[in-house]
Amino acid sequence: MRASLIQIGVEEGESVDSRRRRVASLVREQAGADLVVLPELWTTGAFAYEAFTAEAEPLEGPTYEAMAKAASDAGVWLHAGSIPERTASDSGSAAGEGPLYNTSLVFSPSGELAAAYRKIHRFGFDKGEAVLMGAGRELVTVRLPGTTVGVATCYDLRFPELFRGLVDAGAETLVIPAGWPERRRSHWTLLAQARAVENQAYVLACGTAGTHAGVPQAGHSIVVDPWGEVLAEAGADEEVLTVEFDPAKVGVTREQFPALKDRLLGLAAPRR
């Protein structure tokens, strides 16, 4: 299976419309890949909080349309990263009055929407994404030819229980778009390898390059196999990281070293 992770450079001065066209062209250039992955919030930048509301769009908005067309033109499965999604309010009033979500879109090679995932763990503690966006509530997997993909986003990487849930739902390949800051790059690499080892799954983690609202990005998109071995890693700048991997290795690893079978769930709380 061939995967291409497009580590997009997000810089001030490039409009969202211009970047959207440029990224669509980059996706089309990956014809021949099986899976293409884009980063988190590449339209705005993951730390450009003031742009979330201004650039938010409905699920089937301009980014949806551009990426659906690009996936179809290239004939690839496309994880189109995430967008700031604007929803309608619960009262049924016009779109634009409901909460925002950090929403990932996955398209089939025919350009159909295969899945949408609203990020569960929002970064920022008491500011930024954590207060500007709602939290998703559902785990999402997508069945591709040869593997089942579990979908997560950036800060989710720090929460191993989410990935256990994805594995229990059948995930064999974990795809994680991100806008990860350079100052915590060592955590990015460490956590990507940890999620691969503990879940005996492939990890495809795609970050951004450039600077988001003054926050330098880590880059260094990475592909890790079920034993924790790094198959490929990008540098700091915009690039396309392409790697061949064998989805069958997940089953072989889990059979040869069946650690997942030894999980003990529902343990009693300690006595006080």
Give descriptors for this structure.
15 strands, 30% strand, alpha/beta, 272 residues, Nitrilase/N-carbamoyl-D-aminoacid amidohydrolase, 6-stranded mixed β-sheet, single chain, globular
Description of the molecule:
This protein is of the alpha/beta class and 272 residues long. It has one domain: Nitrilase/N-carbamoyl-D-aminoacid amidohydrolase (4-Layer Sandwich), CATH 3.60.110. The chain is built from 7 helices and 15 strands. The protein has a 6-stranded mixed β-sheet. Helix 1 runs parallel beside helix 3. The longest helix is centred in the last third of the chain and has 15 residues. The protein is globular, with a radius of gyration of 18 Å. It starts with a strand and ends in a 16-residue tail after the last helix. The mean pLDDT is 95. InterPro entries: C-N_Hydrolase, C-N_Hydrolase_sf, UPF0012_CS. It comes from Streptomyces phyllanthi. GO terms for molecular function: hydrolase activity. This is Carbon-nitrogen family hydrolase.
